[in-house]
Amino acid sequence: MNKLIVKTEGLKKYYRLGKNTVKALDGVDFSVKEKEFVAIIGRSGSGKSTLLHMIGGLDSPTEGEVYVDGKKLSSMNREQLAVFRRRKAGFIFQNYNLIPDMNVYDNIVLPVELDGKRIDQKFVKEILELLQLEEKLDALPGMLSGGQQQRVAIARAVAAKPSIILADEPTGNLDTVSGHEVMGLLKVAAKRFQQTVILITHDNDIAQMADRIVHIEDGKIVGTYNECPGQKDCGGNLGHNAGREKAGEQHAGE
Amino acid sequence: MDWSVITSVFAAAAAAAMAWKMRRLKKDIYEFADSLEENLDAVIQGKEPENTGDTADSLSGKLNEKLHRVNHILEQKEQEAAMNRETMKELISDISHQTKTPIANQKIYLEILKSRDLSADIRGFVDRLEHQTDKLEFLFDSMVKMSRLETGVIQIQKENSDLVETIGRAVAAIVPSAEAKGIRLSVEVSHPWEMEKRKGTHSLPEQPAGRLFLCHDRKWTEEAVYNLLDNGVKYTQRGGSVTIRLIRREIFTEIHVRDTGKGIAVERQAQIFTRFYREPEVHDREGVGIGLYLTRKIAELQSGYVEVKSEPGEGADFCIYLPNG
């Protein structure tokens, strides 16, 4: 089986609000395998965004540990965390967060350039082709539709070849049809470029497209559903029924 | 006084020389790191690294030499993999070839046997034998297809052609079994997105009525759609209907196959795409639980994906998403 790329242990995040303590996360043990596509669902305020931010090194836990790609995030200093975010994590946000006065191409290669890396033109071209953005390279984000802007954001996240892609409500600003299409592309792109995706959504239809759905309420994981067992393993050997194994695993875990 | 002037001049000169040397050193290091990165990138992308100074006894020379060796090793590994694939290809084609004749012979003998006068119970056995032979034949066919797709023996060949025509061929193949069960088949085509865009400034090639040009692999897409249709007909009761809808959207073209059958429980919707999965209630003639698996594989090889929406008793809506670009 694939190795774990993300692991959290007893993750807690408490906020003080006057006399009250708000438990945004209350002991979350969560892990993601390499190349897995996981959706985290939950109501707003359930702690799902907090969890994503912890995994991305954007926020630090009150208690517990986050490991990404074998590295403990709490042992990194600010500078190391910044490098970690740049190299290991690709972010996709609800409001796209593209730079308005840079064209599509420059937006996409920005993280690579920031990291001082050479731009892999062949790879960028492949991404552009897959995300159907070849004709929009010179356009400014403001000229694009929401769906197109989010495709640029996906391309930007993928271009830096991160270990994990973290998507926070990527379809939140899109209508149902474009949201669905953008999700489809994210799924296809993650598969093609062998990337791990953790996605937050409150839309059940969108979550259905993931390999696994994790349900969070009140800072705790309340359920896990394997939507598509074997989805990632279909390229496996002939005699090896990965799908059944995975389904079996799930039952055993329940 | 003279001494202090001389000393300071010397000091200044020494400092300048040091600074110059430092700058040279720094430049050298940057150049070294740059060329190293360039060569590493080349190796990562499977290209030959540049062999600047690999004969010189310098650090970059030594590293370049090593990189060349790494590249060489990678190339050899690739060749090995290609050879393994070739062996696999031969093995698969041998299996498919060598099993064809015995199965065909078996079928002929069964035919002959059936034309004889047989007692009722022997006839029953012969029928069952025939059924199993058909199943075996289908199983071999499917497994050969599956392994060819999986080992990359078959390359998906995408070309811009009429998707409606491809669907038409799949539909034509399913008509007999649909007719036998009295199931109505219908096809709808719509391009909501283009309609909308054409109103604006966008200029898109006009799609002639009843046609839909899309870059896709005709043969395998037909197979994928046929598998969905086959399932639709199989799981729909007499008098039901199977509807094919093509919808061209902004990014993907959707091929929906909707039936009015018994539907699929949510907890099984993921499993149906795995290899050799069979719905527990159905164990009829053909079908070895490979169809949906193949369909998904075919969609994925074309950078698309497959989805199902269904509720028990409400029929099922399978959809293949193929990218427009």
SSE map:
The complex is a heterodimer of chains A (254) and B (325).
Chain A lengths: L3 E14 L2 E14 L3 E5 L6 H8 L7 E6 L2 E2 L5 H11 E4 L11 H11 L6 H10 L15 H14 L4 E5 L7 H17 L3 E6 L2 H4 L4 E6 L2 E7 L15 H12 L1
Parallel strand pairs in A: 3-8, 3-9, 6-7, 7-8
Antiparallel strand pairs in A: 1-2, 1-4, 4-5, 9-10
Helix pairs in contact in A: 3-5, 5-6
Chain B lengths: L1 H43 L14 H57 L4 H31 L8 E4 H18 L3 E7 L1 H8 L13 E4 L1 H17 L6 E8 L3 E8 L31 H11 L3 E6 L5 E8 L2
Parallel strand pairs in B: 2-4
Antiparallel strand pairs in B: 1-3, 4-5, 5-7, 6-7
Description:
The complex is a heterodimer of chains A (about 250) and B (about 325). Chain A is α/β, with parallel strands linked by helices and about 250 residues long. Chain A is about 35% helix and about 25% strand. Chain A is built from eight helices and ten strands. Chain A has helices at about 50-55, 80-90, 105-115, 120-130, 145-160, 175-190, 205, 240-254, and strands at about 5-15, 20-35, 35-40, 65-70, 70, 90, 165-170, 195-200, 210-215, 220-225. Chain A has a six-stranded mixed sheet with strand order 6-7-8-3-9-10, sandwiched between helices. A four-stranded antiparallel sheet of chain A has the order 2-1-4-5, with helices on one face. In chain A, helix 3 packs parallel to helix 5 and helix 5 packs parallel to helix 6. Chain A is globular, with a radius of gyration of 18 Å. Chain B has about 325 residues and is α+β, with helices and mostly antiparallel strands. Chain B has three domains: about 1-75, no CATH class; about 90-150; about 160-325, Heat Shock Protein 90. A five-stranded mixed sheet of chain B has the order 2-4-5-7-6. Chain B has a two-stranded antiparallel sheet with strand order 1-3. In chain B, strand 6 and strand 7 form a beta hairpin. In chain B, helix 2 (about 60-115) runs antiparallel to helix 3, helix 3 (about 120-150) packs parallel to helix 7 and helix 6 packs antiparallel against helix 7 (about 290-300). The mean pLDDT of chain B is about 85. The interface of A and B includes residues 129, 187 and 243 of A.
